[in-house]
């Protein structure tokens, strides 16, 4: 029997029980952080040789040099050409949809002139060199290659370096094919904290990048946190999440499959169903009991449901959305008859799937928006990966003599209020020259 906790908003201890679901330690485990610090220090001091040793230790892949951990463009092209036609077509169609969506996100530089003849504006420029981490421990993710590199290319990123763990030296052909399709410049068969350190600081073979994007496990997340500053990062990612709000109008089997699909990612993934109708919750539970024994990743799904899953009975759909805003989930599925009625009430969610036919799995692979999304409640203030993550904005200020004179008096007054007399003098100097 699949163990999924049952919670009712009407229960006296509801707040205590819901808080246990909301809890997730965003700080790295001290033991993990200590180990990751050691790995980073070693990569910084020993470079390529550290990567060779650590790859043997963590990925059980023994090589004699970085040359053997370098995946050439020809290898990626050959992987693409080796795929069966249907897989090639799926990758190409997914790439086209992702590209179409992200091409709508580009920001343009602009300049305006005020009444004093000052020119003010923004100059939008791409980040020159981006490193992309592609997970490869529990499963292979060609979709992540497309979801991260295509927005980067649209933004104008000049160089993309990808790293991907290859346990026991096994390179997933679909991942390599995606690298070819996306036009990744360099690929290295290196994973974990050591890959993040190499991207951040560089080695004899791997050139340091300006920003690192892409999801990863505990060690990768800890490493991204520790290298932030010298290099940019997209986010500190936690376990993946889905919260489904249901009214019983969507088939229970569909919802059960959606919950299982999220749970199979990782034992710490979170899959939650919120519904005001007990019979529908029971129907979904029954479908899960039927489905799970036949699924390949049954053990992972069962552990995920037992550790962080939940069925929550609420009073009505309005209360369900109140819970949504408390969880601020990575993925929100409004599996209801009229999702457009609830949408205005939703304040926090990484991606919102509207109606029964909008399966969250479409967002993982082919809908268009990137599947790299904010987790563990960070959707309260963060957004999914987009073209903007790969661009910088520099403000442009060009003052006329009249404008400098006008602004000088304002700036001087504010500087004096702050006790910064050199600021005040610098502001007034332009006016004195007039």
Features:
434 residues; alpha/beta; Rossmann fold; 3 domains; 6-stranded parallel sheet; 6-stranded mixed sheet; 17 helices; 15 strands; 46% helix; 16% strand
Task: Describe this entry's structure for a reader.
This protein has 17 helices and 15 strands. It has a 6-stranded parallel sheet, with helices on both faces. Strands 2-7-6-5-8-9 form a 6-stranded mixed sheet, sandwiched between helices. A 3-stranded antiparallel sheet has the order 3-4-15, with no helix packed on it. Strand 6, helix 7 and strand 7 form a beta-alpha-beta unit. Helix 5 packs across helix 7. The longest helix has 18 residues.
Write the topology of this structure.
Elements: E1 5-8, H1 14-22, H2 30-46, H3 48-59, E2 70-71, H4 73-82, H5 85-102, E3 110-113, E4 119-126, E5 129-133, H6 142-155, E6 159-163, H7 173-182, E7 186-188, H8 192-201, E8 211-213, H9 218-227, E9 232-233, E10 241-246, H10 252-263, E11 270-275, H11 278-291, H12 298-308, E12 310-313, H13 317-327, E13 331-335, H14 339-342, E14 351-354, H15 360-365, E15 391-398, H16 401-417, H17 421-433
Parallel strand pairs: 1-12, 5-6, 5-8, 6-7, 8-9, 10-11, 10-13, 11-12, 13-14
Antiparallel strand pairs: 2-7, 3-4, 4-15
